[in-house]
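Sorry to interrupt, but I need a hand with the structure work. Leave the record below and I will have a look:
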Amino acid sequence: MPLNFRLERYEGPLDLLLDLIRKQEVDIADIPISTITAQYLEYMDCAREMDVELGAEFIYMAATLIYIKSKMLLPNDPALEKMTDGEDDPRRDLVNRLMEHERFKNAAEMLQQKRLIEENVWSNPQVKSYLPEEVDPGLAVSLFDLVKAFGEVLERVKNRPVYEVESADITVSDMIRTVRERLLEIRPEEPLFILRILAEQRSRRAMIVLFLAVLELVRMQAVVVTQKEMFGEIALLRHSHFDTVFASDQPIAAIEQDYV
């Protein structure tokens, strides 16, 4: 049976490759490069017949797949393979890119699902009148609140021009350092409005990386999520353990390993 492609659903070549791999139900770390290459080229032929203009990145990926396929057709040198312990697999760089892309894609899908769930949860706006005076509603911020706010920002920027700069590939650890520097620029008791920083990002990927960085900072107890008032703008404050967390680079180094 020929594959049925819906061309509009793929935002880039990595999205297409992930979809092909999922349809094959194979391990992403052991891509059947010959089969995937043939299906990828079939997609491009289908797009050409339908007069769908593909970006240069699709053509570049096609060339990359053909190059990898040609290298895998060459006989292996047993001596070289023994020296490198199999690390010279020509698919390795592509697999790493696909795994990283899949991680961020899954995170975006998870956030979208949580946003839909949150939209169907009703709250009483008069709840503030039933709270004791000593209760500070500004401290009652859940991850659901953060996820919903993040989803709303993504929705607002969906139709704005987005500039993808491939050479500036920011990581979660890089974004953690950025948030830390922004917190150090203000007084300890002053809030850092994280959604404003989120809206400054130039790509959807950078927004997801920033959100993951915030989750990591909360997990490490470096920051707390807060609001000045009920249903107000979400902000970050330094946790009492902020200085302890960043006393060494070990926590950030560990995060770098988790997202490799």
